[in-house]
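My current task is to audit a protein record that another person submitted. Alongside the sequence sits a line of tokens, each denoting a local backbone shape. Please read both lines and tell me whether the tokens look consistent with the sequence. Do not assume that whoever made the record got everything right. Thanks in advance; the entry in question is below.
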Amino acid sequence: MVDFALEHMFRIALRMLFGDRTKYVTLVLGLAFAALLMNQQGAIFLGLLRLATGPLQNVTQNDLWVTDPDTPWIAEFRALPDQKLARVRSVAGVAWAEPFFNGIAVCELASGTFKRVQIIGISRSTLAGGPPEMIEGRIEDLWIPDAIVVERKSLERLGGAKVGDVLKINDRRAVIVGVCKAKLGFEGNAVIYTTFDNATRFTPTGRERISYVLVKVKDGIPVQTVKEAIKALGDVDAFTSDEFRLKTKAFIVVATGIGINFAVTIVLGLVVGLLLSASIFYQFTVENLRYFAVLKAMGARTPTLTGMILIQAIVVGVIGFGIGGGVAGMFAMVLNKAESELQAEFPWWLYVGSFVATIITIMLASLISVRRVVGVSPGQVFAS
């Protein structure tokens, strides 16, 4: 007997799928939940990793970051002495090298309370490493004695401070001369910009004061060449911004429990989606066994019946992923639009990976149903 044409198989499979609306909706919602969980948790995890890169989010003027060789990530470092700054400046191909300070201080508020603040100290001469955008005032106003620029979200944390207010940081006078827009770090502390000398005055240090050295490479000279020359000094290491981001993110994933916690949540979403879709899909198939038996009695071969099951699985998977992925995307857009501290990052490969995972989930769930359909007997058409 002649097997059914492909278009007939596709049409019949969809009619069977959409005919039982209750189970169809339940299948779609189960897969949508799994896709939502994978995308939402994955995006928030990537957002947290981005926050962990701290100043790397805002500093773009330099080509290289020079650090102590044992620096594990951006927020944990061993300060460098001024002599190493001079040695880096002497390397061939370096256009400029400037000190960068990253530290924590205590700020006394007018209310009598206090807040921990992150002090970013930049070169007084070039202002390299400054905030990406000024909202009030000019970055050059940092040349004023005791001047600081406060990140805009940090103003509320500092008791509703505004330009012109005088704060006390570690018992040192600090005058707000501007407001900037910058991305906050992993710790969520208020961020304050000032000159390098002011930063070391607000946050007392020893002889070694430089957190990092920012390096700009001369035009026409490969960054990799200068990087290797700096590393050849023997007691410092050098990274591009991308390399330093990867190093920081790898540290957060490996050395903390954040990666494991999010991985458990994502895997849980996959398992729930798999079990739910498998049970419902199997029940759906069992209730339609009589129709598959009719098709088999009419000449439908095993590959045809298997193809019908797989078509149903793929259609449900695509629709379920579309709903779940769409909701997760809207959630991320709302978070980022509101500029919430809880950030979400949606690279293209997260969507592709979660889509593949969703399709694999429903395909695995359909295997049990395929086995049942393949074993169906044409004689079941006449079963009571």
Strands lie at 64-67, 94-108, 114-122, 133-136, 147-151, 166-169, 172-181, 190-195, 212-217, 237-239. DSSP finds eleven helices and ten strands in the chain. The longest strand covers residues 94-108. The mean pLDDT is 86.
